[in-house]
Amino acid sequence: MSRYDVVISGYGPTGAVAANLLGKRGLRVLVVDQSDEIFQIPRAVHFDGEVLGACGRSAGSDLRAEIAGGVARLASGLRAEGGKA
After folding, report:
1. Which residues contact 57 (CB under 8 A, 6 or more apart)?
2. Closest CA to 7 of 29, 39, 36
3. 1/18 Cα distance (integer angstroms)
4. Is 8 helix (H, G, I), strand (E, B) or coil?
5. Looking at the DSSP assignment, which residues form a beta bridge with residue 8?
6. Considering the entire predicted model, what is its pTM?
7. Which domain holds residue 30?
8. Are residues 32 and 55 in the same domain?
């Protein structure tokens, strides 16, 4: 019988990130999901300061700076094209 440190129910965006981060920290992770196919409709569509902070705390400040820079470039590009940022 296999033993796991963590069992994650659901392999959506949140479950996938959690499994990845926990696995990188050396934990044995089992992920279960009701489907064996990738869900084709986006679900993780909200990204605000709180989510950015969680990314920074869990993955390190370098990732946080990289994400913040990417978001700023995207917003700048949208404004340059006349869209809302």
Report:
1. none
2. 29
3. 23
4. strand
5. 31
6. 0.53
7. 1-36
8. no
Whether 79 and 50 map to the same domain: the answer is: yes
Bridge partners, 29 (sequence order):
6
| CA separation for the pair 84, 77 (Å, rounded) | 10
Question: In terms of domains, do 28 and 51 share one?
Answer: no
pLDDT digits (tens, 9 = 90+) for 39-83: 777 676 666 777 767 666 666 556 556 666 666 776 676 655 555
Sign of CA dihedral 12, 14, 20, 26: negative
75 within domain boundaries? yes
Q: How many domains does the chain have?
A: 2
Q: 1: helix, coil or strand?
A: coil
Read off the tokens for 7.
């069992």
Dihedrals phi, psi of 79, to nearest 5 degrees: -65, -40
Specify the DSSP element, H or E, that contains 17: helix 13-24
CA–CA distance, 64 with 68 (Å, rounded to integer): 6
Residues 32 and 50 in one domain: no
